[in-house]
Amino acid sequence: MAALGWLTPRRRSATARSVLAGEASAEAARKSTTDVLDREVPDREPEFPVQGDERAAAFFDLDNTVMQGAALFHFGRGLYKRKFFETRELVRFAWQQAWFRLAGVEDPEHMQEARDSALSIVQGHRVAELQSIGEEIYDEYMAERIWPGTRALAQAHLDAGQKVWLVTAAPVEIAQVIARRLGLTGALGTVAESVDGVYTGKLVGEPLHGPAKAEAVRALAAAEGLDLSRCAAYSDSHNDIPMLSLVGHPYAINPDTKLRKHARAMDWRLRDYRTGRKAAKVGIPAAAGVGAVAGGTAAAIALHRRRR
Question: Which residue has the higher pLDDT, 142 or 296?
Answer without folding.
Answer: 142
